[in-house]
Design goal:
Layout: E1 42-44, E2 53-58, E3 74-79, E4 87-90, E5 95-100, E6 110-115, E7 122-131, E8 134-145, H1 146-150, E9 156-158, E10 165-174, E11 177-186
Antiparallel strand pairs: 1-2, 2-3, 3-4, 5-6, 6-7, 7-8, 9-10, 10-11
Amino acid sequence: MGCLSSLLAGCEPPTPQRAATTPAARVAPPPAARVAVPKDAIQGDFDGDGTPEYVWLVPPAIDSTGEDCVGSCVSYLTSSNPRLRPYALKQSIGGDLTKFTGLGPGRRDYLGILPQWFTSCWASYYVLTYQAGGWGEAVPAFSTHCNQWEDGVVPIAPDSAHPGHVIIRYSEFSNDSILVKAKSVPLR
């Protein structure tokens, strides 16, 4: 403060002060647009960062006959976490999602997808994992038949006899019968 009385009172003019050197104020980015999470979404920690997110499939539009897609028949795996890139599931008009915990090392969850199609009981089963570059197959897709699902057969489980491997249960047509077989495969 300067002197309010006259200079005769022995006051010196105020010393100019420098502005405080503080870092520039950081402006927070606007919050990401919130997406409505569907009721059938699956919650899990798919990227292994310790924070759970939701994932769900967005099916393609179906034409008025109910027998074809409007455009390509691709469903998109979508997440509540905008950092998780969508995954295009070709030849799919929807699907059933299953979370698998404990298939591999770490806290990452894996995602099983049984695609839906217009006809046929046969379908490839996909088990996905999320890595830095995006979604990828944790094991190669394997053949399943609706009998397997109706009987409640678990499609994939850890292989305790072989670390780093899982046991997949797949369907195979043999001698006029559909059989469910199992084998150990490495987890990617």
